[in-house]
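Reagents: none. Just compute today. Acriflavin resistance protein.
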Amino acid sequence: MFAYWGSSTSGPGLMGRDQGSNLGRVTARLSYQKERKRSIFEIADGLRPLTSSFPGVKVRYITEDPLSNMLFGGGRAFNLELYGHDLKTASGVAKRIAKELSKIDGLTDIEISRKEKKPELQVIVDRDRASRLGLNVSDIGTTVETLFSGKTASRYREGGREYDILVRLKEKDREKISDLKNVFITSPTGKQVRLSNVARIEERLGPLKIERKNQQRVLRIMASISPGRGLGDVVRDVQGVLKNIRMPEGFFVNFG
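Predicted 3D structure written out:
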């Protein structure tokens, strides 16, 4: 068993997973089927009551092969594809579909592939002013990323194990916008320049990832299927639900 929590650097998530300081993942490798009495689905169902009591935390269980998740984009037992151009409309329709799917027996861990925009702080550098002080955007970006996200400076070995040594500010020194503004950037000549002297900090919503299939915008509603229910039975129930949901003009659904 191993755990993954957050991200110290930006970049795509491993095996298609999302990254962020508010996200975590625990992966457990089970013994062979013949060595245990319960299926992976029964084990997941047994864990649900334990994690449902965590306040403010959403937990979902993925019982499919993570390699499928990486190679085929999803790896979930059930995938419904919603096609449509308008982002806001698509989000509303997807949420309504997900709500109705949650009422179907045997569908669990329902999830919408497109995430809401996340608030973030953006550093807008005054390039001319920075240049006059001997700085460039790369210098500023590297310093800010190291101090707030962290950077592996070296590795420590002990007892046959290797640990990353992460360099960044203490948590109390990277909590507020003022902490970011007061960061000092070292110029090539050794001069210390306060970040607020060469850049402004703005609160914005981060970019939205838009999926496409066959050159059309697509949004996926994914779920796991509990043991005892076949995919065909679930699809028939879903088709019944979709008949009662009116699709906006230009929108349609397909089973993935």
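The chain has seven helices and 13 strands.
Action item: order primers for follow-up constructs.
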